[in-house]
Every structure is written in C-alpha cells, then in structure tokens.
Amino acid sequence: MADLKNRGKVKVVDGRYKFDGHFHYIYPNSPIRNEDGTLMGVTNPRDITHVHMYGGEAPFFESLEKGKLLGTRCENHDCEHSGTIHVPFKIHCPDCLQKNTIIDITDIAKKTAKVHTFMVTERTGAFNTLKIPIKFINIEFEGVATILMSYLPVGEPKIGMRVVPIFQTKNPTYTILDLAWVPKGTDVSKLPDGFSFE
Ligand SMILES: [Zn+2]
User: Fold this and answer.
1) C-alpha 154 to ligand 1 mean position (Å)
2) pTM value?
C-alpha cells in the first residue's frame, strides 16, 4: 500500500525546484460487473500531487494572509490605456504587454466593492471544499477595469449590493479560497472560521 508519510514536497534551492518524496500513488483496483456478473471493466484509483507554481502571481496569494488585496496597474506612459487597474492580478498589461506595477487595492475594495452579478449553485466540481449552496459573486470596484470572481459565504447576494473583503488569516491555504466577501455591515462574529476583516 502507499506510503503516504513520504508524500511529495517541493523546495526551491538555488532558484530551482527540488522535488522530494512520492507524487504518484496507485491503489488496488476493483472490477466493474453488470447485473449478470459479467466483467465490464475496472476502476483505476490514482492519487496525484499536482505542483502549481504561481510565478509572478505569487505576491497576490501571499498578501491574502496579511489581509491585503493586490491588483496591478499599467504605468507605461506610451500605452493607450496607461493607468488601467486590473483585479484579478494581471502581471502584464494586455494592451501594451509591459510589466504592470503591483498596487494595494484593499482600501478601494473596502470602500467601493459591489456585486456586479452572481450565481448560486448546488452542483460543484470534484474536490469542492466550499459550503453548498455556493454563492459565487462577480465584484466590481470603482476605478478598476476588470471584474473579480469570488464567493459570498455569509448572506444572500443581490446585484449592486455593497460587499467587503474577508481574509483567511488563520491557517491560510495560499489559494484564492483565502479571499471571500460578506455584505457590508456584517458582524465579525458571523465570519467563517479562520477569516477576519484584516
Ligand atoms: Zn499598458
């Protein structure tokens, strides 16, 4: 059977990824039979550790733990759309392709975030970790050119509703799930475990 104690981990040594342990596990299969007991196939259980490198987006995920929301801005004066702010985080300006400057938009988010539209779903993909029904919301900010996709763990979404960001500062996952939103005025006691306003 699989030795899960030696599950794969990745370190960076001298700027290179160094892999240690096992990244693939195979488990005993089982037959698939029809009603008469005739063999139709087999299941093939597999356990794979994906390695997801964030590259230039890493500062965005690191900042959530600190209660900060980062965006980026084109500061190329020769760009037709110089000054455009992007949230979600875009490393390069889609108009001039130059590297954007990282900016802190936490205050803009707290003061201006609104639900642009939303979607409530009971049907999730594999490995869902959010509470069902999931209230996905698209968020607009004043002065920001893009719309951010996230979720609302507290309250009911409405178009135009003011929301404020909350951050998983306790036991962060370093994924987009460390960021969520609640209706403006929500009491701190209503926030999901591990989340705070800052
Ligand atoms: Zn640009």
Assistant:
1) 37
2) 0.88
